[in-house]
Every structure is written in C-alpha cells, then in structure tokens.
Amino acid sequence: MDTIAKKYKNALSGSKKIIGINGSPRKNGNSDILLKQILKGAKETNVSAKRIYLRDFQFQSCAGCEKCRKDKICTGLNDGMTLLYPKIIESQGLVIISPTHNYNVTALIKAFIDRLYCFYNFTKDRPGPWSSNLAGQGRKAVLIAVCEQKSKKDMGFTLDAMRLPIKALGFDIIAELPVLKVFNRGKIRENKEILAKALNLGKNLAALLNK
Questions:
Q1: How deeply is 176 buried, as exposed, middle or buried, from its count of CB atoms within 10 A (0-12, 13-18, 19+)?
Q2: Could you tell me the residue range of the domain that residue 173 belongs to?
Q3: pLDDT reported for residue 1
Q4: Which of 7, 23, 95, 121 would bridge 109 by S-S if both were Cys, CB 3.0 to 4.6 A apart?
Q5: Across 105-120, average pLDDT
C-alpha cells in the first residue's frame, strides 16, 4: 500500500468518527435540520459526529494547478479547505447534504468535491490509471438531496453529482435520501416520516462503522 494511503488508514485506527458536510448557503434551513437529525442518530449509537457548514468556511474551487499530484494534498491553495482535510481523513463516515440548485448540487458542494481531487494518485500518462488514497479503508457515506419539486427527476443531477465522485474516492455509499416537496425554512420539521428516516440513517451508518 502507498505510504500516503497507509497514513490515512492509520488515521482511522482510533474511535470511529462521522463528519457531516452541509452545502446549503441558508442558515437554519431544512438541510441543517436533516443533518442534525442524521448525526443525532449516529451519536445515539455511540459514534462521534461533527457537523460542517461549508458556508462558514472561506474556500475557492480547484485552481487546476496539479501540485497535489506531487504533494498528495492541496498545496496550491491555502484557505478553509486546509482546515477540513484533516477532518475528512480521520472520519470513516461521511454524510453530504445538498439542496437542489438549478438541477444540481450547490456551488459550495461542487467546489468542496472538486477540492477532494488531491486524494487521487495518478501516473505520468495522460490519460492513465488512477487510484484513491481514501479507498480500501472501510469508509462509508450517506447522501441527501433536498428539492422543492414533487418529482425526483426534478432533482436533475444532484444525487449523481455527489454519488459518482464520492464512490470514485473509495467510499461505500450505504444510502441515498431524496427529500421532495420542501422549501420554506424549517418546513421539514412537519415531515415526521422523513425525520425518522434521517435518524435511522445516522444509526445505520454508525452501526456499520462499528462492525
């Protein structure tokens, strides 16, 4: 195993941790409520869980400098993502939640995912084979998308835009939760069925990490 990948695997050797990434720019909205509910379920199963609101961090999208191919972490930019990388590395569980913005994830989530490019290994050939330093470590993820419309097709690429890159990074995606017909701030509190599902997702994620 590559020495960098070993380092990341060793970072998971302690107590299990889950990091919840919220890509909504709106404070105290439905995404915030759902993330709290999911991580509440995880904590009830005795797994440490921390919420991250991307709106609270100043960071930019990937600059395409390719320095991370050599350095194995993002060194081309020094911003809020520098604070988040250690939290990602040491967390075996990942929860990502995004409202649907124009048939896709929010700009915050897109920039966040693009900045995870530094976890890939590439050969000198272009294009060529690649691997992820986060793969093969039992990492697991839950994805949630929140949409105002009635049909899942109106979410467009929201879940795909999270699933494809997170799976490529080596996470086992254990569940996806599309949440429909909710927009007004805090409206999700009235949907007891969805709140119960969110709580159980957190419990299930934690239980799988504890196996």
A1: middle
A2: 3-209
A3: 52
A4: 23
A5: 98
